[in-house]
Each structure stands twice: as structure tokens, then as C-alpha cells.
């Protein structure tokens, strides 16, 4: 006899919400039917046609109080089917209770855990003081541009009156549960230079490559400093990847290549050069100062900058229990449920960054300890007992968060 929450989870995993053509309407229909069965209010909002944000709501006894948002993304990343031992959309469960499917860790598990936690409280006759919204958003796996990034700017989002949000974390093979209170700010930059061209035997001043290398040197130096901090012998400061800034110069272009890219025209000084840098800036860096210096440095070396992506505001969520009743509650529930949260800055990006930038505290948490990190990997799986234990945790957490009286962080 399978637990009904596990059955629901496996049904959700079988819906092919995989890029590049996620079945968003299939997922919305599934969630609508679940909402009807559980007596939750169902609504959708499309910031971009064909990409619904689904919101299920359980209203509290005082709907004027800021609400709790339980967010997950509907979409999953593509699979290399030949590398999987079972159908990645079959949700096969083996004799140990491991459920194999794309999205089993990232993050359909959390979406169903949120839903089942609310349902359990409802079944038990609990009456929440605050309203709780369970949101399912599109496109997180392709940057969130048409999903959470747009949604947080709508009047529909404002109407949810969110005071505190939960979103995804990562699995951990160890005992602790990773708990993310911030993210790094991703800056993707293209630097372009021009200069005199001519025969490769000349010694012109300020060639395109000269200028580009001088510009890049500063960021390469920063990379060396951060790398030394992260890889310091014995890691005395206990730094994780999210605590440092990463700088990777990932693309270069200069010179006269043949159209097939195979011939080397080494005797022409190129008239232009460009490079692309991927920087993930730690929350401890002042982004205003960083951007000012970036522009000054580019001007100094005659570099034209194109910013492909950036985040100019990158607040972190308070983890000071004396200041934040949200965090104090989270911490208390972890203690009661014998869960050990391990605080960290998320090394990549999630939808939490848009929520935090909108001024709302958010914690990234997927209760998956003793679980290998398999997101985006072949044979992604989650054990059903870990999944069910996560529902126990969220049930208690949602109960306590929605029961919180008006406090200092309520607007
Ligand atoms: Zn995810």
C-alpha cells in the first residue's frame, strides 16, 4: 500500500514539464484537480502567454496579515534518455523506495510537500491565522525571466501580500539540511576593444588585444584572491563556494579566422577583440562600488561593456532569531523535528533572488539530507521516506508560520 502523498508525487513527475517545450497546461490541470479535491482556491496568472503561474490559496482568519508563500517551479531540465536506467518520466520506484524521475529532487518533490503539508493541516481541523499561498511557477530553469522575475512585479503578486517565502534548496549526502538565506549576484559581461591593425611585425601602441588584456587583468587578479581564500589549506574560515566571488573569463574572440575556424592568420594585428566574463558576486560585496569601478576601469582602457545579465540589489534574509520571528520559527521547528539546518549562500541562482529583491525575506530549503546531489544529473531520484519526512517538517513549519501573531517585520 503506497502512501497517497507518494502516489500524487509520482503522478506529478510523469507530467513532461521538460524544456524546451514544458507541458505547463498539463501541470496546471493536475494542480487544479488537486486543489478542487483539497478545497483550496485555485487561480492562474500568465505574465507571458502559455506560461501560467499557478496559485493555490488557503485563507487565514486574518487575511489582512502578511501571508506565507510556498514556492516551487514547475519546469525541469532536459534529459539524456540513453544515460538513464529507467524512463525519466516514468517515476519508477525501486525496492528501496527510491523514486527515479527528472524533477524528483529539483523540485517537484517540494511542490507536492508544500501541498500535502497544507492539506494535512486542513484535514486536522487547524485554522491558520495568516493566509498561505502555494505557488507553482514556470521557467525557473531558463532564468525565470518569464516566470518569477515578471510575476513579482505584477499587481496580482502584490495582492498576495507576502510576508515570508520558502523556495528550493539542495540535497545533502550528510546529516544536515542545506538552508539558503541568500544568493550570489550573477553578472555576465562582454568586454570589447578596438585598436590599430596592420602587419604582425609592427609594434603599435594600444592594440585591441593590449586594451582587452589590461582590462581583464584586474578581474583575473580578483579571481586569484578569491581562489586563494576558498582553497586555503585546511579552510580555517569554513568558506563555502557561495561565500566567495567567482570570476571566470569564459569566451575570447580576436583575429581573422577563416569561416571554418581552422586556419591561423597569425600575421595580422586584429582591429578588435572581445571576451565574456561570468562573475558570481558574493553578497558581502558592495554592488554600487563594484559597478562604479567596473565602468571607470572600462573607460580607462577604452573598453565597450555589454552587460548581458546583472543583479544590482542582492539582499540576504536575516538569520538573527532575535530580529526575525520568521527565522526564529524556522529554527524552532527544525529543532523540534530533529533537523539540523546548515546555513549557506546558494552558489548558483534560484527564484528566491527575485523575491528577496522585492523586499521579502525568503529561505531556500529542500528537506533532503542523506541524499546524493542529483539535480540536473542522470538517474535523479529521491527516496520516498525522505519525501514523507519532508511533509512532516513542512506541516509543522506551515502551522507555526501561519499561526504567528502580528510582529515587528509585518508591514
Ligand atoms: Zn530548481
What secondary-structure arrangement, pairings included, does this model have?
Blueprint: H1 4-13, H2 24-38, E1 41-48, E2 51-58, E3 67-73, E4 92-93, E5 98-100, H3 108-123, E6 132-137, H4 148-151, H5 155-160, E7 162-167, E8 177-183, E9 185-194, E10 198-199, H6 208-230, E11 246-254, E12 268-269, E13 272-281, H7 287-300, E14 304-309, H8 325-336, E15 341-346, H9 352-357, E16 362-364, E17 381-383, H10 384-402
Bound molecules: zinc ion.
Give an overview in words:
With 411 residues, this protein is of the alpha/beta class. The protein has ten helices and 17 strands. A hairpin with a 2-residue loop joins strand 1 (41-48) and strand 2. Zinc ion is lined by residues 73, 106-107, 140, 168. Residues 73, 106-107, 140, 168 line the site of zinc ion (ZN).
Give structural attributes.
411 residues, alpha/beta, 6-stranded mixed β-sheet, 4-stranded antiparallel β-sheet, 10 helices, 30% helix, globular, binds zinc ion
Output the structural class. Answer: alpha/beta
Estimate percent helicity.
Answer: 25-40%
Identify the bound ligands. zinc ion
Arrangement of strands in the largest sheet: 1-2-6-3-7-16
Q: Could you spell the SSE succession in H and E letters?
A: HHEEEEEHEHHEEEEHEEEHEHEHEEH
- Terminus-to-terminus distance: 47 Å
Global morphology: globular
Low-confidence stretches: none
Main beta sheet, described? 6 strands, mixed
Q: Approximately how much beta-strand content do the residues carry?
A: 15-25%
- What is the averaged pLDDT score? 96
Number of strands: 17
How many DSSP helices? 10
Gyration radius, rounded = 24 Å
Amino acid at each position: 500500500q503506497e502512501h497517497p502523498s507518494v502516489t500524487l508525487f509520482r503522478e506529478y513527475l510523469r507530467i513532461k514539464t521538460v524544456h524546451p517545450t514544458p507541458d505547463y497546461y498539463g501541470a496546471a490541470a493536475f494542480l487544479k484537480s488537486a486543489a478542487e479535491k483539497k478545497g483550496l482556491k485555485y487561480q492562474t496568472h500568465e505574465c507571458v502567454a502559455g506560461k501560467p503561474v499557478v496559485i493555490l490559496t488557503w485563507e487565514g482568519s486574518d487575511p489582512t496579515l502578511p501571508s506565507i508563500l510556498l514556492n516551487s517551479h514547475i519546469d525541469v531540465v532536459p534529459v539524456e534518455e540513453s544515460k538513464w536506467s529507467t524512463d525519466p518520466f516514468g517515476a519508477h520506484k525501486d525496492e528501496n523506495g527510491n523514486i527515479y524521475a527528472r524533477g524528483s529532487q529539483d523540485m517537484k518533490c517540494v511542490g507536492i510537500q508544500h501541498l500535502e503539508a497544507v492539506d494535512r493541516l486542513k484535514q486536522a481541523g487547524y485554522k491558520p491565522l495568516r493566509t498561505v499561498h502555494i505557488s507553482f511557477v514556470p521557467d525557473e530553469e531558463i532564468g525565470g525571466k518569464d516566470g518569477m522575475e515578471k510575476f513579482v512585479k505584477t499587481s496580482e503578486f502584490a495582492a498576495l501580500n507576502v510576508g515570508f517565502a520558502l523556495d528550493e534548496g539542495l540535497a545533502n549526502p550528510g546529516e544536515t539540511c542545506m538552508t539558503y538565506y541568500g544568493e550570489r549576484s550573477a553578472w555576465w559581461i562582454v568586454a570589447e576593444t578596438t585598436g590599430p591593425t596592420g602587419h604582425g611585425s609592427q609594434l603599435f601602441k594600444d592594440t585591441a588585444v593590449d586594451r582587452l588584456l589590461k582590462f581583464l587583468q584586474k578581474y583575473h587578479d580578483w579571481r586569484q584572491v578569491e581562489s586563494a581564500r576558498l582553497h586555503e589549506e585546511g579552510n580555517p574560515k569554513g568558506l563555502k563556494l557561495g561565500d566567495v566571488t567567482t570570476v571566470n573569463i569564459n569566451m575570447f574572440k580576436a583575429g581573422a579566422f577563416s569561416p571554418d575556424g581552422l586556419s591561423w592568420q597569425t600575421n595580422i594585428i586584429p582591429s578588435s577583440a572581445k571576451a565574456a566574463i561570468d562573475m558570481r558576486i558574493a553578497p558581502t560585496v558592495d554592488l554600487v562600488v563594484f559597478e562604479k569601478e567596473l565602468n571607470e576601469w572600462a573607460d580607462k582602457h577604452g573598453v565597450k561593456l555589454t552587460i548581458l545579465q546583472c543583479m544590482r540589489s542582492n539582499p540576504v534574509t536575516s538569520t538573527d532569531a532575535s530580529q526575525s520571528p520568521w527565522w526564529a520559527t524556522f529554527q524552532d521547528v527544525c529543532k523540534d523535528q530533529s533537523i539540523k539546518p546548515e546555513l549557506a549562500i546558494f552558489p548558483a541562482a534560484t527564484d528566491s533572488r527575485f523575491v528577496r529583491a522585492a523586499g521579502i525575506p525568503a529561505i531556500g530549503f529542500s528537506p533532503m539530507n542523506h541524499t546524493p546531489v542529483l539535480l540536473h544529473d542522470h538517474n535523479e531520484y529521491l527516496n520516498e521516506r525522505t519525501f514523507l519526512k519532508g511533509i512532516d517538517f513542512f506541516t509543522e513549519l506551515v502551522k507555526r508560520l501561519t499561526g504567528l501573531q502580528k510582529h515587528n517585520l509585518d508591514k
